[in-house]
Amino acid sequence: MGPLTLTSDNLILRVENELSAKNVLDLYLRNRISFEQFEPTRPHDFYTIDYHEAMLRREYKAYLYGTFIRYYIYKKSNVNRIIGSVNFNFMHSSTETYAEIGYKVDALYQNHGIAYDACCMGIDVLQRYYGITRIDARIHPDNEASLHLAKKLGFVPVQYEPQSANIMGHYVDLIRYSRRTSDTQ
Questions:
Q1: Domain count along the chain
Q2: Among the listed ranges 28-37, 121-130, 174-183, which one has the minimum average pLDDT value?
């Protein structure tokens, strides 16, 4: 099992439980418009405390079972405000265990290297604690910031996935990017 908390010079990444539901909901409310344009359509109760308490309980259990890990991102200068997250969903194929990465950063903190640093920290955890050798990212082709980040992290496009995600009530195409964890960052 990977660590609950990671730190760098500027960031703290932490696995949270239901006690942080208000702060997690606040992140989503502040960024509703920017997040929704590239993420799956939300359930009707997504923007409620109850939803996020239940989600955080499920995520924490999945962390304990070693099937999923989400680190919430904080600036060291403000440890009470979540500014993003990076997560890994562990998948199993007939030949290997790999992870799918997801990430988001508050619009006010984008283009400051935060997502890059948080992803690098998370990828390091996958290598050290879980033995993951491959990471995939499914990215909307219009999400230029995510495409740039994936390329900077060493991901390469491997598969076009037509009509594979329901975003804002419409099925859209995604592109699957992949990288080996042994690749340099």
A1: 1
A2: 174-183
